[in-house]
Design brief:
heterotrimer; B: 121 residues; 5 strands; C: 98 residues; 4 helices; 32% helix
Chain lengths: 111, 121, 98
Amino acid sequence: MASIEVNGKTYETDEEGYLVNLADWNAEVANYIAQTEKINMTDQHWEVVNYLREYFEEYQIAPAVRVLTKAIGKKFGAEKGNSEYLYGLFPYGPGKQACKIAGLPKPTGCI
Amino acid sequence: MSEIKKFMFVNRKAPHGTIYALESLEVVLITAAFDQDVSLVFLDDGVYQLKKGQQTKGIETKNFSPAYRALEGYDIEKLYVEKESMEARGISEEDLLVDVTVLGRSEMGELMDQQDVVLSF
Amino acid sequence: MLHIINKSPLTNCSLDSCLRVAQRGDILLIEDAVYAATTGNAFEGRVREAMGRFRIHVLQPDIEARGFAGRLIEGVLPVDYSGFVELTTTNKTCQSWL
């Protein structure tokens, strides 16, 4: 089993770097994972990551990108509810990268 | 774009004793990406999948029941429950965690006949 | 529409549910569901009553394997494997009741 170390604490991850335990997540771990993905976390990034945490809390699944895009647009304004914006923040895919930073499992069936 | 087809997923198994319910839900969520006309049917023990208040901590399995409430966000809004199956299990609409359309057995059969693809779980 | 059942009606409710919900069409009994099509079984009455609304088929190799080839309910239509394939192609949709 792989792991990452943040501020002297060890966190279990899968071989792709997703946190194994949802409850392990905190802002420092999120920043650390973001760095490994070469992402500098801004307020805009946090909006998406925090939304993903809320969504998972409510439904126990990570949303499909299409569903995430629609929901972000509804919540934060139409200018943010499109894939250009989200891919601008997370170039390798909002599903894959933002979920990883949010400490969620890798989305199933992510397209 | 290709022609939209009517897909029906028929769920007839209780949620935690076997993997069918979870597998069906995962296929449904993936199918949602293809913009087809999707209906979900809950028959027999399948109606137990929609029971409110499921707590799986004690059996150490994933509680996937909250995900049925996410279906609306996936534009999957056609959920049908057979009246006779609910009655046989002492369940009413208020016991269910999502809004559904309740159909009698023959209406359900007619709906099934109108589909292009029927998948059983 | 073709409904395929593969469980004995005496241990599993698939055939019962199919007869309750479906309105018409073809029913094909395979594997352990073929017991439903035998005379003297507790489900015989239901099968006979359903013959008014459905064409009921049974997979011959499965009924032979179980020693009931001589005890088919009258009116049940035996099919071989190619008949099975034909049923799936002549019907627009097909549902395997699990």
